[in-house]
Amino acid sequence: MGMRIVIAKPGLDGHDRGAKVIARALRDAGHEVIYTGLRRNPAEIVRTVLDEDATGLGLSTLSGAHDVLIPKICKLLRSEGMNDVIVFAGGIIPDYDRDELFSQGLRAIFGPGTQTKEIINFLQDVSSRKENGEPVGVGEKLGWHWQ
Amino acid sequence: MNVEEIISNAIGGNRRSLSKLLTIIESGKSIPTNNLGAWTLGVTGPPGVGKSTLIGKMIVEWISRGEKVAVLAVDPSSPKSGGALLGDRMRMAISDANDLVFVRSLATRNHPGGLTSFLAPMISLLSQCGWTRIIIETVGSGQSEIRIVAFADRVLLVEGPGRGDIIQAEKAGIIELADIIAINKSDLPSAQLAADLLRNSLSLATETAIEVFLVSAHLGDGVTELVESIEQIETDSNRDAIRFRERLLSAWDSRLISHPQFNEVILALSAGTITLDEALEQISQPTNKDGL
Predict the structure, then answer these.
(1) Does residue B160 fall inside a structural domain?
(2) Which of A105, B137, B230, B292 lies deepest, with the highest CB count within 10 Å?
(3) CATH code at A8?
């Protein structure tokens, strides 16, 4: 069975073509996707994940604020006890910022040109890792991320 | 943590526990809940008339009246992939920023008997956890949606302008179930005309008149009056009977579909070894399974 995944647009970024393409692709792969709409702050996004009991959270950001917003969201998830939520991101996130985000518990970053199939493969992989008890959540042991 | 502990945490106000319990119910497990007489409203109407946006505005009104509002927003699952795109929540911006609101998106999935066997325990649970206004939202486009809103004790039908003869469009029977009708998008010029036409058609019916409200979820016009009127609803026994009829039918359906011999009987039917009457006879025998 598919996962429940929140696709969110954090911050002041009005471009959601990418998020909508991803939401659609995940739906077609059998997942239940909850889309937040534009310009949500970290607290709102975390509240959505909480109320919807989502397994995964995909963050789409093209504004350049990823280095501030994504760590805030990850911290908030942990402080709310949602250590097991799988967080991934996409959009414009330069290579030199990525290690810092992985160290915050992010498990994948998909840049421009990524095939939707790759994201679906990631979700498949991450869900079998989760079943095997491997750490994949935002508050679980770091080490592995998709590459 | 066992289910009893999660329940007592949820009743104590822990949102995460409540959220987990809804998942447990949705997965088909039964949990002990008490029905304390929850206040429920079903909201339905065609796609794109602004149901979610209107609910978003109504939530604000209810909160100002001291209520705690929970919304179960139902959207269809794709029959092909089983996945679903649940976008109602994005129209209710208040839902993510206020402790007095709880919104849960539900996909119809391909549950035997639809979602309806889970709605009653979800409603009871929400009520037990202190949610005083429980809204069930669904796109009103077919029999299964009618069955979903029939789980609410009052029903609001939302329509929009420019949809032609609404009575004609709503042959599915949703009008008989509605206690109140709202024509949304009153900021558009043809909304008044739609309301007039609908009032006119409804006045031809001999039974008690259904009130038709003009509202604009976009501007917030008419929302206070609509909520006030919903609070005053005294449903008649006629509509009550229709609702219980739908609830009974869906309970019957899910009992039938979850019968252990269901597939067997279908195979026998298609092989021509039994008749429809014999098939019914066979699967209307009670089972030991906790079917409902």
Answers:
(1) yes
(2) B137
(3) 3.40.50.280
